[in-house]
């Protein structure tokens, strides 16, 4: 299963971006089981009406859900420890105090969090958001790349164009890929974006209207719950003609 390898790389990249750490210990090795298990349970509960009954759902699936919660708690404990070490280090003027991680250079999400701490912190702490972004980011990357590979399997002509671009940019295919290399692979970027449009990792998301919001056809009262249908946006025929077709050229510089 290539998604296991993709998930490991995506999680490593997510931790480096959010926490600026190269994690030496394997606290996150079971994270994929959380996303697999919880994702399956969510789908089951949505489509099986009898599972909407709280006590029945817990009776059947609580043991599985409890296992995922324990893994998530361990991950949150690990991130909380990093946050406490970072806070202590900042007060003492020490850049890194953890023996289990290697601090990487550059600004990361953890730095931004500490520089913009909320004045009042409710039950939903900013550390919860950091944990969610670290874990969920990995899962969405895996979905996007796995579906991209699946789509490419049906379009060998696109595979050939990607490989030609990689050869042109890299030259020596044995060397490591740099950030500049990835920025230069514009066609590959178009392929990934088009796949996300066609097979989005997130079908919809919910938001809360903090203020009265006037739209073209109506006004959303403050306090409204708003469902943003991301998948439908990508399949909008006015914006994307023939939306069911895989056409990476939609996102070429000439088309934008």
Descriptive account of the structure:
This protein is mainly alpha-helical. The protein folds into two domains: 2-135, no CATH class; 155-208 and 219-255, no CATH class. Helices cover 58% and strands 7% of the residues. The protein has helices at 2-19, 31-47, 54-92, 109-115, 126-153, 156-170, 179-184, 186-198, 230-234, and strands at 21-23, 101-103, 205-208, 213-214, 219-220, 225-228. It has a two-stranded antiparallel sheet with strand order 1-2. The chain has a two-stranded antiparallel sheet with strand order 3-6. Strand 4 (213-214) and strand 5 form a beta hairpin. Helix 1 (2-19) runs antiparallel to helix 5 (126-153) and helix 2 (31-47) runs antiparallel to helix 3. The longest helix is centred in the N-terminal third of the chain and has 39 residues, at 54-92. The protein starts with a helix and ends in a 22-residue tail after the last helix. This is Cytochrome P450. Keywords: Endoplasmic reticulum, Heme, Iron, Membrane, Metal-binding, Microsome, Monooxygenase, Oxidoreductase. It is found in: Endoplasmic reticulum membrane; Microsome membrane. It is a peripheral membrane protein. Its cofactor is heme.
């Amino acid at each position: 299963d290539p998604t296991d390898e993709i998930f490991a790389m995506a999680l490593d990249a997510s931790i480096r971006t959010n926490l600026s750490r190269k994690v030496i210990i394997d606290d996150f090795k079971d994270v994929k089981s959380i996303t697999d298990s919880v994702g399956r349970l969510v789908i089951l509960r949505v489509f099986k009406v009898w599972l909407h009954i709280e006590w029945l759902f817990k009776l059947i699936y609580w043991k599985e859900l409890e296992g995922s919660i324990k893994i998530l708690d361990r991950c949150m404990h690990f991130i909380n420890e990093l946050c406490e070490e970072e806070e202590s280090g900042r007060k003492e003027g020490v850049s890194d105090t953890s023996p289990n991680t290697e601090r990487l250079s550059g600004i990361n999400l953890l730095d931004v969090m500490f520089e913009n701490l909320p004045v009042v912190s409710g039950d939903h702490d900013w550390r919860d958001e950091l944990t969610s972004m670290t874990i969920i980011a990995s899962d969405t990357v895996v979905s996007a790349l796995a579906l991209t590979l699946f789509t490419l399997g049906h379009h060998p002509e696109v595979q050939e164009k990607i490989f030609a671009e990689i050869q042109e940019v890299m030259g020596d295919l044995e060397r490591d890929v740099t950030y500049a290399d990835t920025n230069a692979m514009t066609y590959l970027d178009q392929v990934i974006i088009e796949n996300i449009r066609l097979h989005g990792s997130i079908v919809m998301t919910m938001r809360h209207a903090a203020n009265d919001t006037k739209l073209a056809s109506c006004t959303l009262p403050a306090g409204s719950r708003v469902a943003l249908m991301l998948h439908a946006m990508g399949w909008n025929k006015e914006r994307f003609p023939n939306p069911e077709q895989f056409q990476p050229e939609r996102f070429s510089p000439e088309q934008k």
